[in-house]
Amino acid sequence: MIRVTAIETGKARMKTAQRTGRDGRGGFGRKVDIFRDPKWVEPLPILCFLIEHPEGRFLVDTGDTWRNSVPGYLPGWNPFYKQVQIRVAPHEEVGSRLLAMGIDPAEDIGTVILTHFHHDHTGGLDHFPRSRIIGPRTNFAISTGLRGMMTGCLPQRWPIWLRPDLVEMDGPAVGPFPTSHAITRDGRILLVPTPGHVDGHVSVVVRAEGVTYFLAGDATYSQANLLAEKTDGVTNDPATALATLRAIRRFAAAEPTILLPAHDPEGPARLAAGSCLV
């Protein structure tokens, strides 16, 4: 039996130009649009996903942390962090959420899988000091140092013990995805490459009984954007981001698939209803 549970870890607000980039704009132009945009979207959930599998418990992404509210936690020299508003109460962090479910994050989560290393996906890493942490090697390479700090990562805030197992997309093609990487021995949890939001971004495919869960991270901010083929304002490569959206749709056309992005407010309801992407 395989089960997927959505866990909300606070809220994020972004500019409308970040959620949906303007058609015809390249990577640089989309950043300009975000800074110029006076409009904010409604607060969006910051979601993690717990996978319960015969081989153990797996957590996809770790959400963000209440420490965003502490002066100096976010680098003030980088104006990017003023274009996103993170609101996380201490009890909303993923560790507290898991404890409320009767799961000790320090002992009961065997593996944490990161779709990428942006701060709203790694902010809860401190809760998992004894878990295996898996992340995509290609994305990690651009997430460290000054480059990472300039592009939405906070490597200076990662736990000092963090030594992630960096994986390559070294497995066979899966549907429209040219490569993959198996996480479990039975191959029912695997990674597929979904670049575009950032280089090296991956999504997690979970093949359960009669349905597949596609944990999309930030490959798209919502199912509505995916269906409309609208890429976000963060991407530096809109063409690659669009190709990823189309690959996800082709994948879902071949097998019943529930799409679960990290910031889609409708995702948990689709999960509860078993509503598949068509």
TrEMBL record:
It catalyses: an N-acyl-L-homoserine lactone + H2O = an N-acyl-L-homoserine + H(+). It is an enzyme of class 3 (hydrolase). InterPro entries: MBL_superfamily_lactonases, Metallo-B-lactamas, RibonucZ/Hydroxyglut_hydro. Residues 45-263 form the Metallo-beta-lactamase domain. It holds the Pfam family Lactamase_B. Its cofactor is Zn(2+). It comes from the Bacteria. Keywords: Hydrolase, Metal-binding, Zinc. SMART domains: Lactamase_B. GO terms for molecular function: acyl-L-homoserine-lactone lactonohydrolase activity; metal ion binding. Gene3D superfamilies: Ribonuclease Z/Hydroxyacylglutathione hydrolase-like. Its EC number is 3.1.1.81. Belongs to the metallo-beta-lactamase superfamily. This is quorum-quenching N-acyl-homoserine lactonase.
